[in-house]
Design brief:
alpha+beta, HIT family, subunit A, 32% helix, binds zinc ion
Length: 174
Amino acid sequence: MTWWPGPRVPFDAAAYEARVRGGPCFVCRLVRGDPAQPELVLHRDGLAVTFLSRPGVVPGHTLVAPVRHVEAVVADFPLEDYLELQRRVYAVAEAVQATVPAERLYLLSLGSRQGTAHVHWHVVPLPPGVPYPDQQFGLFDLARLGVPDLTADQHQALATALRTRLADRAPGTP
Ligand SMILES: [Zn+2]
């Protein structure tokens, strides 16, 4: 497939906001296995859950979150838990980079106390060939750029490839 710009569709900001602000925490619902959540879980254990973002900024956009609902990106973690979570982010970043073309990886923790308060990290592969104005902050201008229009099969294929990469690592990790 073409990785940039690839097929893209307008970003439905209203639907997104309703989903992340309109009820219980969507990450907690995902952790509980709520079938209404559209995200595809790649890995889950007692500490963290890893899942493909939907719609995601680019194909392969993956999120890592603690399974416990905490909101402060540093202050809510004992140091050891924080470092262990960062090991997951590292492993996921390696898996993403091995699965989709990326000339750079962006790692961010965003979120909002008025929306998705559950702390999480974004692993975002910058596809090769993205014009400079559309890199960095520009990549997240979804009102302008839209979002990837992946079929369900393409989304599943990405999830399968990423799960395989993660499973190839030593037991007990991503
Ligand atoms: Zn939560």
